[in-house]
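Bench notes, afternoon.
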Amino acid sequence: MSLPASSTSLPSIDDVIATQERIKGVASRTPLAESPALSKRFGRGVHLKLECFQPIRVFKIRGAYNKISQIPERRIVAVSSGNHGLAVAYCSRLLDKKCTIVLPETAVEEKVNAIVEFGGEPVRFGKFRKEGEAEAKAREIIREKGGVLVHPFNDPDIIAGTGTIGLEITEQLRDIDSVIVPVGGGGLISGIALVVKSLSPSTKVFGVEPEGAPKMTASLKAGKLVDLEAPKSIADGLNPSTVGSLTLEACKRYVDGMFTVSDDEIIQAMKLLVREAHIFPEPSGAASAAALLKETNLKKLGQRVVLVISGGNVSLSLLAKTLA
């Protein structure tokens, strides 16, 4: 997968602190709240980092604004399964820029409608079986119309944006034993793990992927980028065919382990969070809770666990099926 030329090194803690200031007033400082019901069920303190409470209901706003606010060009192009495109459209509108989002034919309709609502131009292209194919389409658009590609995860400015979640977690809760983070392309866990391990070295950071799209698990095992042939999961935000060179490096350095969960387990986690925590996560956002449901050896997670609920852009049809 080709990458932007700027994607050369991971951000530093100072970069993340600067980003926290840059995105202030755009991205929300989201709650980190204990769920008494989940704590009782699992016999340990379970705390939810509620990124579903962002203005666009997903963490992607952090990295997107950090990146786009530093780009002088007036046109932005992005590749997305939905949430990154939504964030790019939202932030481009705030910054008076035009944007085009390359989306798979299977993108959640509510997310596509929101992209249009914020002034983005959606371009449907294939099924995103391979990450590089969609990026090639984005670069074709740039050659025709001009603009700058904003990568969804393999960019230091995007990772610095997600790092601000790590800063907030360490500020909001002390003596954390573990943090569980959903993994798509790896941008979210890279920023969180980099900061948490720097400020609280004893805290463990775990990632969770769908069984149908275990690209980070496979890449860590192989020691190099692995591009899956046909990733598939109900969690559309966790479905890239591969991770990035930067995100793989961050996970090698800072992540303690990976979980994989089935689509059925993700649905059960969505039901659990709706019933017990009274929030409405999308499948990607519920993956961290699915890992907690699946894990039989809870001792390795410790007594104070943070679940990152990464987003809440769930389709109405899926929510209805889940509740039924």
